[in-house]
Design a protein that fits this description.
The protein has helices at residues 10-27, 32-35, 85-99, 114-119, and strands spanning 2-7, 45-51, 54-61, 63-65, 68-69, 72-76, 104-110, 123-124, 129-131, 134-142. It is α+β, with helices and mostly antiparallel strands. Strands 4, 5, 7, 8, 9 and 10 form a six-stranded mixed sheet that branches. It has a four-stranded antiparallel sheet with strand order 1-2-3-6, sandwiched between helices.
Length: 145
């Protein structure tokens, strides 16, 4: 059974870093310097997916501005993909954002993941651009339709 923890506690940040390392650095070839940036501070919250205590997915909680949530670094370990974990991580983070008063959500999505985000109500709001060497687009969603 998958459980979810939203926290800035050190152990959550470390387990989130483990998942990000597996997916973004080892699997996708992003450099550690690009993956772990100035937003990775002790004050940063993460939502972590755990399978019997093992970290299997994560998403970073950021603010773009006073009304805009900026979910970032969504990733799920390969054996756990296509099981609804990524969708659960993002929708739970959006609910937290709504509780905090955010009106919309804005994120950078890999071009290959556009259909995933469209299923969750996001729409493409930019031309493709490179981020960490990967082709991405900006996607936006109104959190209070």
């Amino acid at each position: 059974m998958i459980t979810y923890v939203f926290s800035k506690e050190t152990w959550v940040q470390h387990l989130a870093s483990y998942v990000r390392t597996q997916v973004f650095i080892l699997e996708q070839g992003i450099s550690p310097q690009e993956e772990f940036d100035h937003y990775d501070t002790p004050q940063r919250y993460f939502l972590l997916a755990l399978d019997k205590g093992k970290p299997v997915g994560t998403i970073r909680y950021e603010e773009a501005d006073a009304t805009t949530l900026k979910p970032d670094r969504l990733c799920v370990l390969a054996p756990y993909r296509k099981k609804g974990i990524g969708m659960a991580l993002l929708t739970q983070l959006e609910e937290i954002g709504k509780e905090q008063g955010y009106q919309k959500s804005c994120l950078s999505a890999e071009v290959i993941a556009i259909p995933f985000y469209e299923k969750l109500g996001y729409h493409v709001a930019s031309s493709p651009f490179k981020e960490d060497g990967i082709l991405c687009v900006t996607m936006i969603k109104n959190l209070h339709p």
